[in-house]
């Protein structure tokens, strides 16, 4: 569904919507009684931003809402913003409602879910609240999860194909090939001696074609070990998406292991990220060493295995267990990558001291987007 375009607003009306009711006396030509759409937009904004900023940081402007804002219910608010605002604004409002103000009813009400715009913020909210949903709401939430997951898969799959596909090497030519591989410039240059000046024609005796070099992957194990504590929701989402994309690569055996203080092996569902995300239980402590040990026990050929630990590296048990496990893995020829972030922004927030110790024993640690991880994996698997 496409939201209708926003009504035309004067600069004064736009400032009035931004600053709230308290700014009305100071703005000449602010929202007037005749601006029905502007008043409706203000009421929708006031419902959300007029509730105060005690949750997660305040606006730089002290915005005060109107007296009617609190009368809106969540379904009414969702309906209004879809009628009043463009798509980009709707997604921002829904994201703020969930991430900033914790209005989880957005994903626990069937009527609301039917109107909600599928986006990663809503997916994260579903993961946080799915244990509170009744079967009817959960079924609707699963449909929303599937839409968001498919969009993420489509994007990451392109990056994976680009990273793992063969590249054309212009310096290697052949006398045989398909029409799409025809090397026009090289063919012309090599056949100039057959040019007929009288007829003004070039007779091509030996056409040339570019050769394709495909990256051949021997069998590898990739073990994604992902922290499922509450703060790692974006990482869990993208780990599930990455596992699903890797699952279909020839020569790659993918494992997906989630952990807090306990371990959940999701390898059996790794090909279905929707099922994976609906099974993840967020929260709890963080025993990274225990999870890495579990992954190490499933390695078949150490020198053709890669353990990717996705965590903030705030270890809940003795850090020496994790360090010793990583040291042992590296010593046997297994590559270990520690990812401090796996969301699109790759904002690093992790225990840098423990990460430094892991690097000292041979691990690679960094913050990568899913696309960057795909490139890193392709490089290491060559």
TrEMBL record:
Protein name: VWA domain-containing protein
VWFA domain segment(s): 219-378
Source lineage: Bacteria, Pseudomonadati, Pseudomonadota, Betaproteobacteria, Burkholderiales
InterPro entries from the UniProt entry: LolB, Uncharacterised_CoxE, VWF_A, vWFA_dom_sf
Gene3D superfamilies on file: von Willebrand factor, type A domain (3.40.50.410)
SUPFAM superfamilies membership: vWA-like
Organism this protein belongs to: Ottowia testudinis
One matching Pfam family: VWA_CoxE
Domain of life of the native organism: Bacteria
């Amino acid at each position: 569904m496409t939201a209708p375009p926003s009504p035309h607003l004067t600069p004064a009306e736009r400032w009035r919507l931004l600053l709230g009711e308290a700014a009305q006396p100071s703005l000449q030509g602010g929202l007037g009684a005749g601006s029905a759409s502007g008043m409706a937009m203000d009421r929708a904004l006031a419902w959300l931003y007029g509730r105060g900023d005690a949750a997660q940081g305040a606006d730089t402007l002290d915005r005060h809402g109107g007296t009617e804002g609190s009368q809106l219910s969540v379904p009414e608010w969702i309906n209004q913003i879809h009628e009043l605002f463009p798509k980009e604004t709707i997604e921002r409002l829904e994201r703020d409602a969930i991430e900033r103000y914790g209005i989880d009813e957005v994903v626990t009400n069937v009527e609301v879910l039917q109107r909600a715009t599928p986006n990663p913020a809503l997916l994260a909210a579903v993961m946080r609240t799915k244990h509170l949903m009744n079967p009817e709401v959960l079924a609707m939430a699963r449909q929303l999860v599937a839409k968001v997951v498919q969009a993420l898969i489509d994007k990451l799959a392109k990056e994976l194909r680009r990273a793992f596909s063969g590249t054309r090497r212009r310096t290697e030519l052949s006398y045989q090939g398909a029409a799409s591989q025809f090397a026009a410039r090289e063919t012309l240059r090599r056949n100039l001696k057959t040019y007929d000046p009288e007829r003004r024609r070039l007779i091509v005796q030996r056409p040339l074609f570019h050769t394709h070099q495909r990256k051949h992957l021997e069998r590898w194990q990739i073990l994604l070990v992902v922290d499922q504590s509450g703060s790692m929701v974006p990482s869990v989402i993208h780990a599930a998406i990455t596992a699903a994309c890797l699952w279909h690569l020839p020569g790659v055996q993918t494992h997906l292991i989630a952990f807090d203080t306990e371990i959940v092996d999701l390898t059996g569902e790794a090909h279905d990220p929707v099922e994976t995300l609906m099974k993840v239980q967020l929260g709890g402590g963080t025993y990274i060493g225990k999870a890495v040990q579990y992954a190490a026990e499933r390695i078949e050929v150490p020198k053709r295995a890669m353990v990717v630990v996705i965590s903030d590296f705030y270890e809940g048990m003795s850090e020496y267990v994790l360090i010793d496990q990583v040291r042992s893995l590296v010593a046997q020829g297994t590559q270990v990558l520690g990812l401090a972030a796996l969301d699109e922004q790759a904002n690093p927030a992790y225990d840098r001291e423990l990460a430094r110790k892991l690097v000292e024993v041979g691990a690679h640690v960094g913050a990568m987007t899913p696309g960057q991880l795909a490139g890193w994996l392709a490089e290491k698997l060559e």
